[in-house]
Design goal:
The protein is α/β, with parallel strands linked by helices and 335 residues long. It has a single domain, classed as Alpha-Beta Barrel (TIM Barrel), CATH 3.20.20.140. The protein contains 17 helices and 8 strands. The structure holds hypoxanthine and zinc ion (ZN). The site of zinc ion has 6 residues, from strand 1. The site of zinc ion (ZN) has 6 residues, from strand 1.
Length: 335
């Protein structure tokens, strides 16, 4: 097996996937029809043609519009199930899914509806596909601290259905500091904590995520390259970064995949992982991200193996499950 074949076949964990970002245009239109929701585009082709983004915000506008078709538990279930089928084809054996409750509750969809639909799909993925999974509730950072607190309160009756919290949406102008008190409360509740930082924002936002939010992983984090002290800190602590190469390309964070910093980060000893972010919008699921990154950066078999190992090291699974996953990685790598 060469590096690309190994990348395809190796068992992996996906740790940075917004489940609303897995909503394919075909499913958006099917759900719009099922729920009687009007869309601003005449059809699938026209919608897909609009996926030409210039930055994060230009994507988020379409992403939130797409999510407006989700109304019933079955809609959330169908969306997550479609993702799990794609994940299985890419040899994902564990997935930690972000969801954005505020996008839905603001439209009048109750918290119970989305959590019921998503968690039933997670249970089914374990039973029918052998994929373990967990949900991470993300706060939308363009909204207020008070809105985040209210969202946390609304979710707490369903505490057993999610393992942690994250921070996503428009990064610039909304530093992690804004959510310091919300995250302190989440940590006190025993939730795992992660945050998007250093996607479009500066290294300073990554420092804030580490020092103020006390995150256990950083989502994206490609801005670390601009700060040698931060690179040294990340190499020392091995605080994981969930990097999303095709997302960075489509949102113009990098001009060309050959200029992506992932290989430099890996060589510096950082615990980087590859993820798909919003695969329906960015042109590919996890294996597409692996294949194109391996090709563009000339990654070796050893790099691929390290990325797979990192994905389990960075995941929120127990020691026993992690050991079993790593054994499966070794098994595939040795053929
Ligand atoms: N960045 C910030 N917010 C998001 C993203 C992203 O890549 N995807 C979905 N919400
Ligand atoms: Zn993301």
């Amino acid at each position: 097996m060469n590096a690309i074949e190994l990348a395809r076949a190796i068992p992996k964990a996906e740790l940075h996937i917004h489940i609303e970002g897995s909503l394919e245009p075909e499913l958006i239109f099917a759900l719009a029809q099922r729920n009687g929701v009007a869309l601003a585009y005449p059809g699938v082709e026209a919608l897909r043609a609009a996926y030409a983004f210039t930055d994060l915000q230009s994507f988020l506008d379409l992403y939130y519009a797409g999510a407006s078709v989700l109304r019933q538990p079955q809609d959330f279930h169908d969306m997550a199930w479609a993702y799990f089928l794609r994940a299985q084809a890419d040899h994902v054996i564990h997935a930690e899914l972000f969801f954005d409750p505020q996008t839905h509750t603001a439209r009048g969809v109750p918290m119970a509806v989305l959590i019921e639909g998503l968690s039933s799909a997670c249970l089914r993925a374990a039973q029918e596909l052998g994929i373990s999974s967990a949900l991470i509730l993300c706060f939308l950072r363009h909204l207020s601290e008070a809105d985040a607190f209210a969202t946390l309160d609304a979710a707490l009756p369903y505490r057993e259905h999610f393992i942690g919290v994250g921070l996503d949406s428009s990064e610039l102008g909304h530093p992690p500091q804004k959510f310091e008190r919300v995250f302190a409360r989440c940590r006190a509740l025993g939730l795992q904590v992660v945050a998007h930082a250093g996607e479009e924002g500066p290294p300073e936002y990554m420092w804030q995520a580490i020092d103020l939010l006390k995150v256990q992983r950083i989502d994206h984090g490609v801005a670390a390259l601009q700060d040698p002290l931060l690179m040294a800190e990340l190499a020392h602590t091995r605080l994981p970064l969930t990097v999303c190469p095709l997302s960075n390309l489509k949102l113009c964070v990098v001009k060309d995949l050959r200029e992506h910093p992932l290989k430099t980060m890996l060589d510096a000893g950082l615990c980087v992982t590859i993820n798909s972010d919003d695969p329906a919008y960015f042109g590919g699921y996890l294996n597409a991200n692996f294949e194109q990154t391996v090709a563009a950066l000339d990654l070796t078999r050893e790099d691929v193996l390290q990325l797979a190992r990192n994905s389990f090291e960075a995941s929120f699974i127990g020691a026993e499950h992690r050991a079993a996953c790593l054994a499966r990685v070794r098994e595939v790598a040795s053929v």
